[in-house]
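To close the chapter, one final illustration. This time we ask the reader to focus less on the individual chains and more on the assembly as a whole: which components sit near each other, and how the overall shape emerges from the parts.
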Amino acid sequence: MRLSGGSAEAGAAERAVPAAVALLRDLIGFESVSHRSNRDIADYIADYLARFGVEARRLPNAAGDKVALLATLGPADQPGVVLSAHTDVVPVEGQRWSSPPFAATLRDQRVYGRGSTDMKGFIATVLAAVPKFLGTAGRTPVHIALSYDEEVGCAGADDLVAAVAGLPAPPALCIVGEPTGLRVARAHKGKLARRLVFTGRGGHSALPHRAANAVEAAARMAVALSALGAELRVRHDPAFDPPWSSVHVGSLHGGGALNLVPDRAVLEFEVRTLPGEDEAALIARLDALQREAHAALAAQAPEAGVAMEPISAYPGLDTPAQSWPVTLGAALSGAAAAGAGEPTTLAFGTEAGLYARAGIPTIVCGPGDIARAHKADEWIGFDELAAAGAMMSRLASLLHAPLDAWPLRAPASPPTS
Ligand SMILES: [Zn+2]
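The assembled structure is written out below.
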């Protein structure tokens, strides 16, 4: 953590730093890349909440090296609003950063550092608003839900989403704070990614009839997946680009030498599904393709076959454009007042689909720009953090009333401190 400029200037800048910026600076300092433990950053957040008398429930993974947090501010027996974020970030290897990625740099009214936009900036504004939420949450609670392993296919949210859905009063709204420039995003595609491991029988290339060629079997699968992709194009939704569910083979590895029949090949593919795609039917098709490939290989050599390893899977999001979560989100975020109240769709996936599948009305709306995410010199502006802070203030100003009495127009923001 460091400030640019000399020590006097740095001291002045330090005093002028808003609370959310100071929190973000701390959060960036935790190297919570998905393949590492997130316990440090989770402890920091839990300790911060504890200072306000808020106890965070910990939901560890099976290995115990990762932990999700769920905290409730306000009356737990009333339906409330979930503010959802992931604590993990993508790696920085191979990127040319002009400042240390895990030591926030404050420059030109921006915070530079890995995760500033995706999505520790949102977490910082939520944490900075905790005193406000506690001051107003008389009738409607706010739940803070923080996951891990989002950047590796939303792998770490299942327990957390189940815990949120199982709260004493199921939440009425979930806001996933991924970077949307504070516009409301109502939909994104789902994703299903798998690895297929083809085991054949090796042998001399002059005697292929005594072997089972794993590369050829994998190649036939790639063609079959491509054909499936062509079939899926019949369903259209113009809200998305491309406007259909797509199938993509990302890698196919196998074989070592021309004079040997390859006994192993590995193929990775993904399907990006339109909301409303019949996922069960799709999975049944994929399983059938695997079974056919397995049977064909096993017919050549009984020990041969195809094994499947899931890589990731998350459902799409499809909150109706004309719905109260969208209208309320646009009012809270200030998008409606800025003339940007029309909801958008996202080209990237989020945990929002998981919350929606659990029956919680969900939108995506957070500060920053996804175009800056996952890149070198990722940043977020003080102004973007302030706008997200104003969103939290508007939310806080409503918590004294039960949710079903909330106006759908933007409440006046109390002055931000
Ligand atoms: Zn993200």
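The longest helix spans residues 279-300. Residues 86, 118-119, 150, 178 surround zinc ion (CB under 6 Å). With these observations in hand, you are ready for the problems at the end of the chapter.
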